[in-house]
From TrEMBL:
Top-rank lineage group of the source organism: Bacteria
Matches recorded under Pfam families: CBS (PF00571)
The protein's name in its UniProt record: CBS domain-containing protein
Native source species: Flavobacterium nackdongense
InterPro entries: CBS_dom, CBS_dom_sf, Diverse_CBS-Domain
Entry-linked Gene3D superfamilies: CBS-domain (3.10.580.10)
UniProt-listed PROSITE patterns: CBS
UniProt-listed PANTHER family: CBS DOMAIN-CONTAINING PROTEIN, CBS DOMAIN-CONTAINING PROTEIN CBSX3, MITOCHONDRIAL
UniProt keywords, alphabetically: CBS domain
Domain CBS: 11-68, 86-139
């Protein structure tokens, strides 16, 4: 296995983002449209939080899902803002952070995505799925 490979080689560079002023309805739409589970939240170009699909399920009382449409009642989303639901105290990494370092951070914490920043701006995201795909490619 290669050593000291930077996360920039496996990170998603065209990151789907939410603005802090976006709605949770928009967030749900983006999760489903792009088949993703984590969306960085930005204000201007600075990352200020991370919203996960699990965060949405947590506030929506998952048993409230409409079986026919598999969507959450929009009324619940209107009760909260993205800023209220997102995780705020983020751990971030840099493009030159090694894949091993990123894997160590994720394995020690209870989150599954790391925003990648450069000069204060969001330039990518690395998820546990990215790490698993990288591992599979090694064999």
């Amino acid at each position: 296995m290669k050593h000291k490979v930077p996360v920039s080689t496996i990170m998603t560079k065209n990151v789907v983002k939410l603005n802090v002023s976006d709605t949770l309805t928009k967030a749900e739409s983006l999760f489903k449209k792009h088949h993703i589970r984590h969306i960085p939240v930005v204000k201007d170009k600075l990352i200020i939080g991370m919203l996960s699909y699990t965060d949405l399920l947590r506030i929506s009382f998952a048993d409230e899902l409409d079986d026919e449409e598999n969507t959450i009642d929009i009324t619940i989303y209107n009760m909260f803002s993205v800023e209220q639901v997102m995780t705020k105290n983020l751990t971030t990494i840099f493009p030159e952070t090694t894949i091993k370092e990123a894997a160590e951070i994720l394995s020690k914490n209870e989150f599954h995505a790391l925003p990648v920043i450069e000069n204060g701006a969001l330039v990518g995201i690395v998820t546990t799925t990215d790490l698993i795909k990288y591992l599979i490619d090694q064999y």
